């Protein structure tokens, strides 16, 4: 998919700030440093881009852009992580122009989508009770995502560091392993859906819909009123699923990396 030329700055900025804040709590980095309003997020044990990136949170904070990027790069180097900048509508245009001038490459555009949870009333679906067995969930998630089992300690630590209440949703077939998995994080009146994945052999059979519906219904019963999620723009199957449930785009973000990476 061709990336749009510039992340729109016409988004509802108060909503963007709130959703960015809850997403940070829902997917916590192991180490967070601030340089002015820039947040430098680093997670040595798990290579998530959301957990290893620089995020600018105030459009007016544009001083010493290149110097600050160099300082951040040294922190990434010390963690053994590639330098990544995450562009949201909160990033000043001057920062993005500096990245372009210095040859940074733009990649992986994603949508942040929201849903009024009252809309779930129009659907039927099975209930799945959340698990609290992090080890079992991590094993299933790594298998379904096709990730290295050696990442288990890092992902388990990340999930264990989530502060708001959360549910680990997992469907397995005895003798055949995991079918689908998702995390739902309830942060007051907001519910975040993360890490939804369905086994390739079971896609197109309603497993993703069932898992998503169950997780969001659980959050709504606990008092959540608005759901949010992040999905890569090229994930057409995921977008179709979320739109079927009633999710609508709130804003977009993308990543930048130095040309040499």
Automatic annotation (TrEMBL):
It holds the Pfam family Rv0428c_C. Residues 124-261 form the N-acetyltransferase domain. It comes from the Bacteria. CDD domains: NAT_SF. This is Ribosomal protein S18 acetylase RimI-like enzyme. PANTHER family: AMINOALKYLPHOSPHONATE N-ACETYLTRANSFERASE-RELATED, AMINOALKYLPHOSPHONATE N-ACETYLTRANSFERASE-RELATED-RELATED. InterPro entries: Acyl_CoA_acyltransferase, Bact_Acetyltransf, GNAT_dom, Rv0428c-like_C. Keywords: Acyltransferase, Transferase. Coiled coil: none annotated.
């Amino acid at each position: 998919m061709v990336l749009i030329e510039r992340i729109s700055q016409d988004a509802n900025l108060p909503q963007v700030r709130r959703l960015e804040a809850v997403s940070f709590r829902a997917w916590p980095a192991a180490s967070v440093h601030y340089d002015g309003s820039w947040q430098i997020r680093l997670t040595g044990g798990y290579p998530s881009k959301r957990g290893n990136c620089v995020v600018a949170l105030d459009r007016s904070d544009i001083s010493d852009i290149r110097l600050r990027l160099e300082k951040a790069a040294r922190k990434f180097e010390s963690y053994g992580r590639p330098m990544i900048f995450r562009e949201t509508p909160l990033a000043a245009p001057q920062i993005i122009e500096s990245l372009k001038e210095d040859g940074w490459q733009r990649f992986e555009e994603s949508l942040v989508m929201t849903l009024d949870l009252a809309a779930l009333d129009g659907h039927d679906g099975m209930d799945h009770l959340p698990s609290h067995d992090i080890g079992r969930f991590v094993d299933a998630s790594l298998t379904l995502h096709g990730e290295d089992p050696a990442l288990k300690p890092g992902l388990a630590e990340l999930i264990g560091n989530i502060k708001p209440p959360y549910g680990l949703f997992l469907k397995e077939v005895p003798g055949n392993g995991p079918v689908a998995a998702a995390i739902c994080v309830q942060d007051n009146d907001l519910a975040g859906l993360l890490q939804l994945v369905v086994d390739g052999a079971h896609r197109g059979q309603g497993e993703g819909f069932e898992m998503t519906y169950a997780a969001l219904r659980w959050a709504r019963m606990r008092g959540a009123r608005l759901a949010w999620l992040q999905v890569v723009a090229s994930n057409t199957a995921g977008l179709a699923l979320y739109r079927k449930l009633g999710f609508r785009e709130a804003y977009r973000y993308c990543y930048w990396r130095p040309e040499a990476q």
